[in-house]
Specification:
The structure holds two protein chains of two kinds. Chain A is built from ten helices and seven strands. Chain A is α+β, with helices and mostly antiparallel strands. By secondary structure, chain B is an alpha+beta fold. Chain B has eight helices and ten strands. The chains are: A alpha+beta, B alpha+beta. At the A-B interface, helix 3 of A face helix 4 of B.
Chain lengths: 355, 365
């Protein structure tokens, strides 16, 4: 299997970690309209420009799609150089995954065209668009393959979902009918279940800055970019909802299109504050990991973490990155030793994801 | 303001009578005396509106009927919404329809597993259907389309499409399920299976958009192809009504495909993200070979559904090798066309399409 990624690739979605919750267990929209977003009495500003200028819904949506969601990692084709083909932003990628490049009739999964064209989302209603990315329901009654992390995105606020739609309506149309999906990526009989909200881990009651942690929870868990990659799967591919953020999700080197110097398999890290996870990290070092793609010892993180100067997470605001850091540090430590760590090989380029 | 006085206020500018009385104005007779519509009109001359108006020489001012102001439920509303609130009937108990409705039938019918259907249109007074783009009629805000489904004389559901505002999503679409006594029908957002002891399934609301977003007017059975006699209601009436091309065999098949498949299979339809197969007719198509159906179907290689041994969408002269027909004949998940809203194959429709495909010359013929 091979994903069409930059060789030094950012990638696959850490689309899993925007969630939020508050003391009342109810997630709050964290910033679609900064003028009215309050979270348990505290202003929630995730995604709000650091300048404090209010955002339009489309601006909020752009931030969610481009920075937090890293949607382009899968939905924007890449140039030979590995960089994004910005003229075709969000226009879908033919055979984004090809499980067996030797066969013409097997293994192809295309990411969809999300632009404002007839071959994209132009003629789909707002509700249809939301049902796709939040429930995995296609307009024709079929279901999306769970390579698309709708089961994680389904817990975002209505306001943010609307903001994403508002932004997608502004995306330049690109005429691109993507190639048909093939086995084993044919539509499933049922959508992957949305992660139950009560499974989203809450900050511990004693955490010092619980307010920030709650804001971070919305981003990391309800919207869910971190959670999708940093949660393992069972043998059947099922999302381990009882082991959220505990890492262990396997990414094959070849799937990622990485050179042989990388280990054959890369596992997502346990990002709970346990010895097997991120114990020893601080808010600042987590922010550096998210935005600069370096670990607490300043060593570059392996793909597919979409961090670093060229990665989507570089555009996460400092305040949001700090909130996410608070949230991760506030979690109950979970003992989950991942099978192997990954060191970026010497001599790898560093322009993308810190590699 | 009563409808009658509104009509008078607009007299000479807009031929409102047609909406209320079933009388039509000539293009060149604005402000003149209305005359009866063409015999090909979709109006049933027995409609209450016609009777009322006819009794008064076409003056609608006496019509003692005002459609109700309908409070449509939003997506989260849990309030019961009844058909009796929509103004389809003037007297629901007596099943007396509102007098301002226009009953119509499409030229080519959508298969609904054998259900019998009646259809009505309500245009706001003083308005016309925007037909400036003859292939995509747009209905004024306030337009309502009703479609009643019944089996063996038993009312099962009545569907409603109402245009609520100017934006593409400003529509109410939903189905009302009739009660056992047929005293009223209730909007069921989630639909209902096997209604009133039949095999008939009422679709959930969100499925409405799957097909009805396939054209910007949203009402799929009211178009240039489907309503060649609707001239009097149009902003830009055509000089000649559109006629589906071809001999009778071709015309029936093309019309069938248009009505049953073209709502999704068109350049704006739901299927456009997956396939460029076009099964919707356009008024510029005056020969079979001109049609999008022919050009995107006949002798065109499959780009989907290639695992069943078929190579062509439509194999001329060989219906058995045509994927389009094979999918029409299937009701197995992932094969069936349409992919939902039908559990029974339309044998008549299959036969129409089969005959046409087999009538097409094979390569080299």
């Amino acid at each position: 299997m091979r994903l069409k990624l930059a060789t030094a690739g950012v990638l696959f979605l850490c689309l899993a970690a925007w969630a939020c919750g508050d003391d009342d267990d109810e997630p709050k929209d964290a910033g679609a309209d900064a003028s009215k977003t309050k979270d348990a009495g505290d202003e929630t500003d995730s995604g709000k420009p650091d300048s404090g200028k209010p955002q339009t819904p489309a601006e909020r949506g752009k931030y969610l799609v481009e920075a937090i969601g890293a949607c382009g990692d899968c939905h924007t084709p890449r140039l030979q150089t590995g960089g994004f083909d910005t003229a075709k932003a969000l226009a879908g990628v033919d055979c984004f995954i090809d499980a067996d490049p030797t066969k013409d009739d097997f293994g192809c999964l295309s990411s969809r065209n999300l632009t404002n064209h007839e071959t994209g989302l132009k003629n789909r209603s707002d509700q249809e668009v939301k049902d796709m990315f939040m429930k995995g329901e296609r307009p024709d009654g079929k279901y999306l393959h769970p390579v698309m992390p709708y089961y994680v995105l389904g817990n975002m606020s209505d306001e943010d979902a609307d903001a994403i739609v508002a932004f997608l309506r502004t995306v330049e149309p690109v005429d691109h009918m993507v190639k048909a999906n093939q086995a084993p990526f044919l539509p499933p009989d049922a959508p992957a279940p949305i992660v139950p909200k009560d499974k989203l881990p809450k900050p511990s009651a004693s955490y010092s800055d619980k307010t920030a942690a709650m804001r971070g929870m919305y981003l990391a868990a309800n919207i869910g970019v971190c959670m999708e990659c940093h949660t393992g799967r069972d043998e059947m591919g099922g999302f381990l909802v009882d082991k959220l953020f505990q890492g262990g999700n396997r990414f094959g080197r070849d799937e990622l299109g990485l050179p042989p110097a990388f280990p054959e398999a890369i596992y997502s890290s346990n990002i709970t504050p346990h010895e097997t996870g991120i114990k020893g990290y601080t808010v600042d070092t987590i922010v550096a990991a998210i935005k600069k793609g370096v670990d607490k010892d300043k060593k570059p993180l392996c793909p597919p973490m979409p961090a670093g100067p060229m990665g989507a997470f570089a555009d996460i605001t400092d305040s949001d990155a700090r909130d996410i850091a608070h949230y991760l540090l506030s979690l109950a430590p979970k003992d989950n030793m991942i099978p192997a760590t990954c060191d970026v090989p010497m001599g790898m380029p560093t322009e993308d994801g810190g590699i | 303001m009563r409808w009658g006085s509104w009509a008078r206020a607009l007299e000479g500018a807009i031929c409102i009578n047609v909406l209320l009385s079933g009388m039509a104005c000539d293009d060149d007779a604005k402000g003149g005396a209305p005359k009866p519509r063409d015999s090909g009109s979709n109006l049933d001359p027995t409609d209450a509106a016609v009777s009322d108006a006819a009794a008064d020489g076409g003056d609608p001012s006496h019509v003692s009927w005002l459609p109700p102001i309908v409070k449509y439920p939003d997506a989260k509303s849990t309030e019961t919404f009844r058909l009796s609130q929509t103004g389809l009937y003037r007297d629901l108990a007596a099943k007396e329809l509102a007098p301002d409705l226009i009953e119509y039938e499409p030229e080519y019918k959508l298969w609904s597993d054998g259900a019998e259907k009646r259809r009505w249109l309500r245009l706001p007074p003083g308005t016309a259907i925007d037909s400036s783009d003859m292939d995509h009629w747009v209905f004024p805000v306030g337009t309502m389309f009703f479609k009643e489904f019944s089996l063996a004389g038993k009312r099962l559901e009545t569907r409603l499409i109402a245009r609520l505002g100017p934006k593409p999503d400003d529509y109410f679409m939903g189905a009302f399920v009739w009660n056992e006594d047929e005293t009223d029908a209730v909007f069921e957002r989630e639909g209902e299976s096997n209604v009133r002891g039949t095999e008939h399934d009422v679709p959930e609301t969100k499925r409405c958009f799957t097909c009805h977003n396939g054209d910007k007017g949203r009402a799929l059975g009211y178009s240039a192809v489907q309503q060649p006699a609707a001239k009097a209601l149009l902003s830009d009436p055509p000089s000649e009504p559109y006629v589906v091309p071809g001999d009778d065999v071709a015309r029936q098949a093309l019309g069938y495909l248009h009505a049953n498949c073209g709502n999704c299979h068109n350049p704006n339809g739901t299927s456009r993200t997956d396939t460029n197969l076009t099964l919707r007719l356009e008024v510029s198509e005056h020969s079979v070979e001109d049609t999008g159906i022919y050009k995107s179907g006949v002798r065109v290689d499959l780009d989907h559904w290639m695992h069943k041994g078929f190579k062509l969408r439509i194999a001329p002269g060989d219906s058995g090798a045509s994927a389009v027909l094979a999918r029409m004949k299937s009701r197995i998940k992932d094969d069936a066309m349409p992919p939902f809203a039908s559990e029974l194959v339309d044998e008549t429709g299959v036969e129409l399409v089969e005959k046409w495909i087999d009538s097409l010359p094979k390569a080299g013929d």
